[in-house]
Amino acid sequence: QICNQHNAEAPNLEQAFRRMAQTEPNLDHDVSWFILPSYWAKMVVALISFLCFANSYDGDFVFDDSEAIINNKDLRAETPLGDLWHHDFWGSKLSSNTSHKSYRPLTVLTFRINYLFAGGFYPVGFHVINIILHCTISVLMVDVFSILLGGLQFSNKGRRLNLAPKTSLLAALLFAVHPVHTECVAGIVGRADLLCALFFLLSFLGYCKAFRESKYKEGHNFSVFWVLVSVILGAIAMLCKEQGITILGLNAVFDALVINKLNVLEFIQRLLHKDKSLENAGLLKKGLLFRITLLMSGGASILYIRWRIMGTGPPAFTEVDNPASFADSLFVRAINYNYYYSLNACLLLCPWWLCFDWSMGCIPLIKSVGDWRIIALAALWFCLIGLICQALCSEDSHKRRILTLGLGFLIIPFLPASNLFFRVGFVIAERVIYLPSIGYCILFTYGFSLLSKQAKKKKILAVAVLGILLINVMRCALRSSQWRSEEQLFRSALSVCPLNAKVHYNVGKNLADKGNQSAAIKYYREAVRLNPKYVHAMNNLGNILKERNELQEAEELLSLAVQIQPDFAAAWMNLGIVQNSLRRFEEAEQSYWTAIKHRKKYPDCYYNLGRLYADLNRHIDALNAWRNATVLKPEHSLAWNNMIILLDNTGNLAQAEAVGREALELIPNDHSLMFSLANVLGKSQKYKESEALFLKAIKANPNAASYHGNLAVLYHRWGNLDLAKKHYEVSLKLDPMAPGTKENYNLLRRKLEQLQKKGG
Fold first, then answer.
1. Among residues 161, 533, 714, 747, which one has the fewest Cβ atoms lying within 10 Å of its Cβ?
2. How far is CA 456 from CA 2, 460, 461, 462, in A?
3. Using an 8 Å Cβ cutoff, are 353 and 496 in contact?
């Protein structure tokens, strides 16, 4: 063991405070563990927490990162900062019926700062901030655990005494290396949980500072300022993620148990018997009721303001997100909720089977008491009831305090995710266990101290705990590497949740994005087999089959998708594309308009509608549809191009030129627009300007055969035959089968030969 000598020269009065504190049972007394000076303990915790997750620093944007960051307009500079306070975590308006009501404006603000400093969507900066946040939180846990495990004592100079240096270090290490935290650290959207935890802990430490100057004998004196600071920090935590508000309740529990040394069982008994000596039980001691009133009124005000901003409507979730919450039977709902709690407990105790998503059949519903999984929730409640009985009935006040605090930090932060107060949009989410794991670490450390007290060979027990820490470090590193890319993340879930349709869907989508359509089809089919109502899998599978010209099956899948979900706009549009390919134009037009009915701002659908009208020679309707697409999405290059080409082909060169110039003002670096406008200018005999645009387009895309071929035609018309010959040859080299180019080249050669003969 390393001796702690850093307080050797402390004043006698401080030593007296330590002796007074040590008259209570001390967890460190029987524990065989390292003693390090506070600074070094924090350095060790920071280093180890960094090593666990360092390999995630250069990971990609994965899973929910796409929606929360890449597709979130609130990150971009052109979006007013004020919009962050009226939008949810995903950038949707809180007033929208489709909003998940996850109100986390401060987290989104940090994403926006990341984006601005990086100059774009570069994930390294986002990941580095997450790692730094987890390291900072783990360091703060050393102080938090020293208070929760050792009690709150100050020297005469207002310096807090660490009365449990061994066990607080152990608990902080357990927290720092817990593999269940990987999703929060390696997944960028986990920033919400990290920021929430940071201000959660600062709120707790701030509340403890309220008693720094007073020596708080029986809680008579305290600093109102620090109590209010604690409330404000709790509000900031909630603006990072909803769980943050629970710290106000935990501060009240801590005040009653640690500051006022309340015996909960004794208080309940006196309350039931209407004993007038309640003041002696501790609750009515001077200052406690006032502090709790401050905390509760602050919490109520925060919740009311959030409720007003969010609106009165609950978030809209579907059955696949949380099937138990849609069960008709109260019994089935209760049994499955409790089973979910037991699975969360298992993830804390044995975090080996981790998955990015636990919905969509990953955990089949328990529908009868004959299901063997009932054993899991029976075991959970057996353990909880045992711990609660010990926390209430033990004659050892020290034991009562630690067990109650451990259970409080385990259960209270988990309540918003428990389905007790409102339906949540998941079955199990590893990220929501980040804060409850504090309670787990307290209970584990206390259990370790009890075993150490009984064990004859304490060093063997310490080695076993070191082994657990080492295994967790390796598991964190492995899991972090899986979070570095979507392919690894999704494939890692196949063995954990083989019945989860969303896992197969995501593996298929990842393969399709990489161009491996054959393999993607296999996983999409499995997703539909596991969940026959999985409309997104049907839509994506239908898209691939459409591209492979398997139109009949594509139509069947897409028709089924819109039958299951009639407002699924993307499926209606894709169904229209298939019907157009089958030359069923009236049905296609109807499908496109149905898609637009369900999604008013749908530029891609207007674009496809324009293509349909162009095929039917309804040129005015086509131009109007494409114009609508560009109004809704000014950077819609394909719609601009089609307008220019249609106007060019119908002889409206002046209008085509005007549209082309308008398009290039909005998208100045689009080489396809440069090419289309250059063709129009060439036909209008504006050769110089046309040449400049062709050359600019070729510079941006030098391997486009058509660019060289059309520039050669321009030179041919212009009479610059040598340059025409050069670009014809480049075009034919890039694409020997380029339509018309070979014929034009042969015409040019014959003309050059004739000129040579005349010159000879």
1. 747
2. 21, 9, 9, 12
3. yes
